[in-house]
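Predict the 3D structure for this chain.
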Amino acid sequence: MKKKKIKVGVAGIGHLGNYHLQKYPKLENCEITAVADMSADRAQKAAEVYQCSAFADYRDMIGKVDAVSIAVPTSEHYSVARDFLAAGVDVLIEKPICTTLEEADELIELAQKKKLILQVGFVERFNPAIMALEKVIKKPLFIESHRLHPFFERGIDVDVILDLMIHDLDIMVKFVNSPVTGVEAVGVAILSDKIDIANARISFAGGCIANVTASRISGKTMQKIRFFGIEGYHSVDCQKREILSLGKGENNETGQLQKIQNNIEVGSHDPLEEEIRSFVIDVTNRSQPLISGEDARKSLALTMIY
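Done. Predicted structure below.
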């Protein structure tokens, strides 16, 4: 029996919203039926491309969609997601889930009560290099990350921690899987009225230490995260989607330990397309999202250190 197509909408047709719109038509079992943006002209232009309804108010999409991508500014995540969840619509919301833990808890509780899918768009989790890391990483003891970007007006409704650093915090929370015991942090506002560059040193109960840097005022882009453990060293370039993994082995001639390079196969898929495919599958099968509201809350809790 052929499955009924999922009616999908996108709220917020800016930079990320347009990318979401580009991915859905590539997937089976779904169709874009509505878009919404505060700019009626922008919504109408998108609707003409994807042959769907256009609205200036996202609430007018309710009743016309089964599932929605929310790509509005972070400060509006909570109110938009709350309205869709309350109306029985499955939600894929761009990271971070929202701006406070109280808001996150309410969205998580609402999704559970309504038995709805609430997935949070940490696209780096679907990065083929990060996914390949799972094949070799064991117990990290030290982590160092640098997520550096040039300055753009987009995204400055929140600080660099919620804008950029939270990607790496999410990855660390996943792979360390241990409670945080201490944090030392510093942040400076330079080109906006919020923190534009930040560094944190995070201690975990399992013994791991992480040194995390994020900047949106750099001259070039860097998205690297390095893991050190007794089994070896793993360096991931999220921008290039590459991984260098070094382990240790025994020299056949001398019997001494030596450094070896692990041969790891890295996929070539598009991370955002894979993220959206995962959402559509979960909506179809009513399965637990790879990155649930509860998962997103953990990384949001770490941002509260500032």
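Residues 34 and 53 are 5 Å apart (CA to CA).
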